Amino acid sequence: MVRYVYDFTEGGRDQAGLLGGKGSNLAEMTRLGLPVPPGFTLTTDACRVFLATGAEPEGMAREVSEHLTAVESAAGRRLGQPDDPLLLSVRSGARFSMPGMMETILDIGLNDDSVLGLAKVSGNERFAWDSYRRLVQMFGSTVMGVDGALFEQALALLKDLRGAPDDVHLDAADLAQLVETYKNLIHLETGEYFPQSPAEQLRRAILAVFRSWNAERARLYRRREHIPDDLGTAVNVQRMVFGNLGPDSGSGVAFTRDPATGRPGLYGDYLQNAQGEDVVSGIRNTVSLADLERLDPRSYAQLREHMGTLERHYRDLCDIEFTIERGTLWMLQTRVGKRTAEAAFAIAAELTDEGLVTADEALARVSGEGLARLMFPRFDSTATGEPLAHGIAASPGAAVGAAVFDSAEAVRRAAAGDQVVLVRQETTPDDLPGMVAAQAVLTSRGGKTSHAAVVARGMGKVCVCGAEELAVDTGARRLTTRDGTVVEEGTVLSVDGSAGAVYLGTVPLVDSAVIRYLEDGAVDEASAQVVDAVARALDRADTVSRLEVRANADTPEDAARARRFGACGIGLCRTEHMFLGERRKLVEEMILAATDAERDRALQALLPLQRQDFAGILEAMDGLPVTIRLLDPPLHEFLPDRTELATRIAAAEARGDRPDPHDAELLDAVNRMHEENPMLGLRGVRLGLVVPGLVAMQVRAVAEAVVARTRAGGAPRAEIMVPLVGDVTELRLVREDVARVLAEVSEESGVAVACPVGTMIELPRAALTAGRIAEEAEFFSFGTNDLTQTTWGFSRDDVEAAFFSAYLDKGVFPASPFETIDRDGVGRLVRIGVEEGRATRPDLKIGVCGEHGGDPESVHFFHAAGLDYVSCSPFRVPVARLEAGRAALEGTDVSDTR
After folding, report:
1. Active-site position among 47, 306, 318, 451
2. Strands 462-465 and 548-552
3. Which residues touch 577 (CB under 8 Å, ≥6 apart)?
4. Which of 60, 94, 158, 315 is the most buried (most CB within 10 A)?
5. What is the 3-state secondary structure (H, E, C) of 362-407?
């Protein structure tokens, strides 16, 4: 029989799939002997059954009752007991952390009778009514569906009537009155009464947490973090401990290292006389853990000891939630903490130095996505001027955007193409869509452990929290600084998440420290830690990786930068980019040529220009392979726009003038070459077979550049790649042409020119007949951009704007197939091509040169598929290097902070 409930004493961290991250870590802390309030976990299996059937799993209620009895026996009190009630918390806990995205209900067991018993036994009437009003508010919004804003409005009205700056200044009578207001509100909105039965409260709370797995904000967060929708959440039921019993009580969130920078030490926030949700919500400004040492030295010392135990045990940055109840410390949660990219690299390096992790484990704990963030530009500190305000540097980086004051406006403007900064007093889980849409998040309240800070760090979003100098008026859609400066919605702000500063207007950007290091080895003192950590990670990745990383580069400048960034060759040099600008006229002459002689003259004019281009690139990549793709796009792309030509001719005729004969000739050529679907028309290898002399000119330019570099003492390694081959005969015909020209140049120059000839695999037919194509190809390079288009039947330019967002929302795609390889479809064609190609030619060199070559997840697929190299833009070369190393370590312990 399936079991659905486990006591905290029964599980461990290795059961996160069943017990969720929170439940498995509570069990682990219990096993370590840390002070954890007793409780039990309902499994993710139970959630999945409930979501699939709409009913509680058979036997779950009985198991809950049995485990509740055990908790009651240990406490010596019953749930909701009138004279001395046992109270419970009910919290979500999915396998991967989703901060604030699902539901929590505290103080289950309170009712009109037990609140009086709680007041008596605690000796604190205000505490009892504060706990009751929290329960009614949470239960009403979470379980009974009442708009949470209505409760907040009632609380705000009462504070105004009493002249109270916050809820701490409301007395017991005020809170008792608020409870009645809340209960009446629930009845008015739902037609139901707040349930007085503790058992009913518990049952409904558990089911509400299960349902919250499919809440819109939870679904959005999972899409953003690539968390599968079918995992479900566990539910943790735990004996309540209270941080709101007075000045000797409180709640806090702590990190074993700074989650923003990775620096060692205790970091976190603490609130006296508060429950945990008060800390993360940001509604009251917290104090630091250093202040806790002064307020309660004993609890601080215990917390420090427990945090050391957890970091040594988990061998990683730990995020901890705790409560102090009348001087007694309780550990409520731990997990591997979310961190910024800077902190991830710094912590990995430090833990290696401390002997807690190996060099391979350190590499597995950083990511290409994080490295890309560290390569983004930063604000120019010499051009910032006076900041508008300072706050807490919660998540680093530099972002510029128009100030907006609610989530909906952020989403609307971002959809229109605007960059925005979401400004709030504090964020809540309902602000997630706006946080995703915004370039940065700015709040006037909260600390490093507030909702805004935690979520922004997890998403790599720039964030400044707790900018108390700002008075944020979301109703009037503006903020006001202490000196009276008013910033209206739409005003451009620059947010520096590294320095915790906010500036009016646009601040200029400069290269990041990591980019400066990659470019010329420069390191400044302020950034030495993170630069050293990045360098160590890349060195280790290069040591363990099997995949080589090449670059897509079309100019000597791009090639040189790619080499500085660690590329070991060029996997794609696109010759069509060399035909633009002033050279376009020569291409026009070739297209318009009426005779072979005219076409030959145009090609001969292009030859020295192409030779010069290739020579520069071969020099920049001397000694490394350079794969040169023959002309790929349709020729009409080098001609003027059809509509523009027709308009010019019509305008001339309307004026009574004779149209320019050259325009008429061009329009005739454009009309003659017009195709309904150029992507599938006369392009790639087809051009080489149809346009006489085109392949020969390009191959001669390559061969003569090789000769020039060889005579100059270089070691050129040019490779010739034929695009869009669908049948081996196409490749055989072009290869014969290539061999003839290479032989001619070798004989003319006296320098032996040997260039391997291969093809791009970018059509499904090519992948399916790869075995035959390998008879003629010395290498394959998968062009996954076009292979994705032709496999899916997509025209990328048309479909991305038309319906991709809907497909992502509906779960048709987990991610855009143009960004991350479609493993089931395109990926299967890649595997077939690799297997069949190597069956024919075991030494076949195989790479990929589409955009997927720089995508971290895709790099792991290409490693597993047996490719020899990936090729990507120069900027993404370090990212691909890092991921190539991580792909070789599959199965090594990672810091999965999701």
Report:
1. 451
2. unpaired
3. 554, 555
4. 94
5. HHHCCCHHHHHHHHCCEECHHHCCCCCEECEEEECCEEEEEEECCH
Amino acid residing at 456? A
pLDDT by residue (tens digit) across 739-748? Answer: 999 999 999 9
How far is it, in rounded angstroms, from Cα 338 to Cα 35?
23
Sole residue written with tokens 């239960």: 139
What is the pLDDT at residue 636? 66
Q: Is the dihedral of CA 564, 565, 570, 576 positive or negative?
A: negative
Q: Is 451 a catalytic site residue?
A: yes
Measured CA distances, 754 to 492, 695, 716, 730, 741 (Å): 57, 16, 10, 21, 11
DSSP 86: B
Task: Extract the runs of DSSP E, i.e. beta strands, from 248-370.
Answer: 250-257, 264-272, 287-288, 318-325, 328-336
Contact 235, 49 (CB under 8 A): no
- Residue 470 and residue 389 in contact, taking contact as beta carbons nearer than 8 Å: yes
H-helix or E-strand spanning residue 195 = none
Q: Is 866 helix (H, G, I), strand (E, B) or coil?
A: coil
- What letters, b where the CB count within 10 A reaches 16 and e where it falls short, cover 203-221? bbbbbbbbbbbebebbbbb
Euclidean distance between CA atoms 365 and 264, whole angstroms: 17
Mean predicted confidence (pLDDT) in 535-557: 95
Nearest 5°: CA angle at 682, between 676 and 684?
130
What phi and psi, each to the nearest 5 degrees, are found at residue 36? -115, 125
What separation in angstroms does the CA of 764 have from each of 725, 759, 785, 830?
A: 10, 14, 12, 9
855-892 burial, b at 16+ Cβ within 10 Å, e below that, comes to bbbbbbbbbebebbbbbbbbbbbbbbbbbbbbbbbeeb
* b (16+ CB within 10 A) / e for 341-361: bbbbbbbbbbbbeeeebebbb
Question: Which is catalytic among the residues 465, 568, 755, 849?
Answer: 849
Q: What predicted TM-score, i.e. pTM, was given to this entire model?
A: 0.84
H or E segment to which residue 160 belongs? helix 148-162
Calpha distance 704→35 (Å, rounded):
76
Task: Put the strands of the sheet holding 389-390 in their side by side order.
Answer: 389-390, 501-504, 492-496, 398-404, 420-424, 440-443, 462-465, 392-395
Asked whether the predicted pLDDT for residue 550 surpasses 70, the reply is yes
Model pLDDT, residue 897: 54
Distance of CA 223 to the CA centre of its chain: 10
Quick one: which of 434, 471, 473 has its CA closest to 456? 434
How many CA atoms lie within 13 Å of 173's alpha carbon, on the beta-carbon side? 1
Q: What region, left, alpha or beta, does residue 866 occupy, with left being phi > 0 and alpha being psi -120 to 50 degrees?
A: left
Residue of 445, 488, 482, 490 whose CA lies nearest to 464: 445
Spatial distance between the Cα atoms of 117 and 829, rounded to a whole number of angstroms: 69
> What is the Cα–Cα distance from 850 to 521, expressed in whole angstroms?
29
Tell me the per-residue pLDDT of 434-451, one tens digit each, with 9 for 90 and over: 998 999 999 998 877 777
CA distances from 24 to 14, 30, 57 (A): 7, 10, 21
